[in-house]
Write a structure and sequence with these properties.
This protein is of the alpha+beta class. It is built from 14 helices and 39 strands. The structure holds (2R,3S,4R,5S)-2-(hydroxymethyl)piperidine-3,4,5-triol. Residues 357, 387-388, 432, 499, 501, 547, 549-550, 566, 569 line the site of (2R,3S,4R,5S)-2-(hydroxymethyl)piperidine-3,4,5-triol. (2R,3S,4R,5S)-2-(hydroxymethyl)piperidine-3,4,5-triol binds at residues 357, 387-388, 432, 499, 501, 547, 549-550, 566, 569.
Length: 757
């Protein structure tokens, strides 16, 4: 572009003209917002700016949309590759890895394509070039850039969407594929977005991701990438406990250090999809580059797009920070609180919940539930939830799923007297359902054996004695919607826990035309979302919890439709620290349901009886619930539990809506600490957990973060301070928690001293 003379003001919100030395007009500035569009005779370029980052796109000489930059925001537009001293074509080397912003399969593309199409004439090659652009404002008032690409010959267009979230340094991307022709085309891969990382001159890319299994979801994993492709994915028909759709990449220096919690560059992203998904990282050398692509999994997928139809991908939100993994998480959390979680309840604090599952399992009776109601009310519980076992012939997990009538032996008077009692005791009432499933031993299955996924001549594999309903069939989806709508209309229900307890198998849909068979994975999730969205708008006061045999549906797609998430069936408070740490990497603590439950756990996960206080502290780091058989509590335990519930209510706004700092990872040593700071920095709480105490060693100091260095804070719950300390001193001198013995815990509260105080 040559040397430019530019009129800017610092922070580049004002750019009036860009001229070369000889005065030739090079750029026209279209707007001065978070999305800036520059157009010259030679080039078109977009700079998406957030408070601290920039994301730059431009056109290559052949009309292809190129990625140019993603990282720290620079002072002048001409600082970005392709805008000033670097020519666009020098920016990324295409030898091994395409620098296309949305690579479509065709030509010499050998890395992961975002789009793969078969046209009706059998051609399997897409060549996308720039067509036009527009800018709009999203429903939340956030700026959205839409760049339309078109194939050079075939009638297919792709709208790439970029929603910019300036204050949290995030960009939400998705794509819309439109068939503008007169005949069908088949989509064989259609990802949401590709994220290009900068070329590395030394060091290694390091990938952080979340994986696990039932009972040990969202475990943090970290690996250095070498050449080839790393795939994180689910093919199970749900998000899955085995892998979670989140990635973070930092750079490990040759001496082995990388980004930390509070420092270092991190590029990260999370996908909003609750079905089959994949995130791949292609890594090449010479030069060393990495490229992340993600969206709906193309495994066993095909989508017939008829003339005039469009396919909308799920959103993939990405961000960059130079402040480490902690800031990456805080940006994602704040985005979820301010924009993503369903707006109807986003501003409300999550209620302290009691769930009777671990107390009674399937042995649900009105009498026992009434006993639990009284005990829960005495403890200050605000939401009483009956879990599985209240309906049909559900005496165990071998029968009843699909028959959503109140079991008359368990509730001879129906549900309403119990619901009324719960309300009389000042609590809300919630109930469990698993609407997408059926037991073969159920009236529903006997009446509609063709409503489940199946392949003719193959057995129907059961997991937990259940089969999965085919929600791609409109009558099945309508049946689920109708029973839930009636149920919510007939009873005063305030809360639904929506469960999903098996992965998909034999994903057949024999009655559908064969060209639609591989659409089931996507159609299922679309129908699931549609049912929940319609029920939410019909019953706006109901609060919804997503669950899939624990944390199998923890993702941004679910959290856009559910107010909270059941993170794991593992309620062991020590194991939970690691599960919750991993969850917090991507998801807001407000959405993270954590119960205090039996110790040793009733599911015999760990054989340790831990202190009530420790169990509460572990659960108080998210949205607190209780799951024990409260009728077994002694009077002392009742009093202690009531006091801890009351304490949680005092601090929960800080935990649920504050900024999270992972001070010491439970993976690192015998100690773990996590801190929450209110957004105005006036209040903070620090939870500290000591897993094992050796040699009477005093617990080490904890160094809080995120405080106002210039203000003083009252300290409660630590060995030190009877007198307030400044934020600066707290963050540098530290605090000494009261911790004694194995599985000790402490809760330290910090409160800013009023100026006059
Ligand atoms: C799995 C869930 O994760 C549990 O909390 C419980 O609801 C059971 N399902 C009930 O079957």
């Amino acid at each position: 572009m040559g040397k430019t003379s530019v009129e800017y003001c610092q922070g580049f919100t004002l750019v009036t003209s860009v001229r070369s030395k000889n005065g030739k007009h090079l750029l026209t500035v279209e707007n001065e917002q978070a999305v800036q569009f520059f157009e010259s005779e030679e080039d078109k370029c977009w700079i998406l700016t957030t408070h601290r980052t920039a994301y730059v796109l431009g056109l290559a000489a052949n009309g292809r949309l190129q990625h140019r930059y993603w990282g720290e925001r620079l002072p002048y537009p001409s600082d970005y590759p392709g805008m000033g001293k670097f020519k666009a074509s020098h920016m990324l080397d295409d030898r091994m890895l395409s620098s296309d912003e949305y690579p479509a399969w065709g030509g010499f593309l050998y890395t992961e394509p975002c789009l793969k199409v078969t046209f009706a004439d059998g051609v399997r090659n897409v060549v996308l070039v720039y067509s036009h652009q527009r800018q709009e404002s999203g429903p939340e008032g956030l700026p959205v850039l839409v760049i339309t690409l078109r194939d050079t010959y075939y009638p297919v267009e792709v709208d790439l969407h970029y929603k910019v979230v300036p204050q949290y340094d995030l960009i939400q991307r998705w794509a819309v594929i439109r068939n503008t022709g007169q005949t069908w085309l088949d989509l064989e891969a259609v990802l949401s977005a590709a994220w290009q990382l900068p070329t590395l001159h030394e060091g290694f890319y390091r990938l952080t991701h979340l994986s696990g299994r039932w009972n040990s979801e969202t475990q943090v994993r970290r690996t250095v990438l070498s050449d080839g492709r790393k795939t994180l994915e689910s093919r199970r028909g749900l998000t899955s406990a085995e892998a979670n759709p989140f990635f973070a990449i930092d750079i490990q220096s040759p001496n082995g250090t990388g980004a930390s919690e509070e420092a270092g560059q991190v590029w990260f992203g999370a996908l909003g999809w609750s079905g089959n998904w994949k995130i791949t990282v292609d890594h090449v050398s010479d030069p060393v580059r990495a490229y992340v692509a993600g969206g709906i999994n193309d495994f066993d997928f095909r989508w017939r797009l008829k003339p005039g139809e469009k396919f909308v991908t799920p959103p993939f939100i990405g961000g960059y920070t130079a402040q480490g993994f902690g800031q990456a998480s805080r940006n994602l959390h704040m985005y979820q609180l301010d924009y993503l979680l369903p707006r109807s309840h986003a501003q409300q604090l999550r209620q302290v919940l009691y769930n009777s599952w671990e107390a009674v399992f399937f042995d649900v009776t009105e009498e026992k539930q009434l006993q639990l109601v009284e005990r829960a009310a005495q403890l200050g519980v605000e939401l009483f939830v009956i879990d599985d076992g209240w309906f049909g012939q559900r005496h165990h997990d071998r029968a009843g799923l699909g028959d959503w009538y109140v079991n008359p032996e368990k509730f001879p008077r129906g549900l309403d007297p119990l619901i009324a009692r719960v309300h009389e005791r000042g609590m809300n009432f919630g109930i469990w359902a698993e609407p997408e499933m059926v037991n073969p031993d159920s009236d529903l299955y006997r009446a509609h054996p063709d409503w489940v996924y199946n392949f003719p001549h193959r057995s129907r594999s059961e997991r937990r004695n259940q089969l999965m309903l085919n929600l791609a069939q409109p009558e099945v989806a309508a049946h689920i919607y109708t029973w839930l709508d009636n149920f919510l209309s007939e009873h005063r229900i305030d809360f639904i826990k929506w469960d999903f307890n098996r992965p998909i198998s034999e994903p057949g849909w024999p009655d559908a035309p064969v060209e639609h068979h591989r659409e089931v994975y996507v159609r299922h999730v679309q129908a699931f979302y549609d049912i929940v969205e319609r029920l939410r708008s019909r019953h706006p006061t109901v609060v919804w919890e997503v669950c899939a045999g624990g944390g199998g549906r923890a993702d941004l797609g679910a959290l856009a439709r559910f107010d909270q998430c059941w993170v794991s069936d593992n309620t062991d408070p020590f194991d939970r620290l690691k599960i919750q740490e991993g969850y917090s990497l991507a998801y807001a603590p407000k959405s993270m349901m954590a119960w205090v439950s039996n110790s040793p756990t009733s599911q015999h996960i760990n054989n340790e009886a831990l202190r009530l206080r420790y169990r509460f502290h572990s659960a108080m780091t998210g949205s607190l619930g209780l799951g024990e058989d409260l009728s077994k509590y002694t009077e002392e335990q009742m009093a202690e539990a009531a006091a801890l519930v009351a304490e949680y209510k005092i601090i929960r706004h800080i935990v649920q809506e504050g900024l999270l700092y992972r001070l010491i990872s439970p993976r690192a040593s015998d100690l773990a600490a996590v801190q929450y700071v209110s957004r105005d920095q006036r209040e903070s709480v620090v939870f500290v957990f000591l897993h094992a105490q050796h040699y009477w060693r005093a617990a080490p100091c904890i160094y809080p973060r995120g405080l106002d260095p210039t203000r003083h804070y009252h300290i409660e719950g630590s060995r030190d301070a009877a007198t307030p300390m400044s934020g600066q001193s707290l963050m540098n001198v530290g605090l000494q928690p009261h911790l004694e013995g194995h599985f000790g815990s402490a809760l330290i509260k910090l409160k800013m001293v009023d100026e006059q105080g």
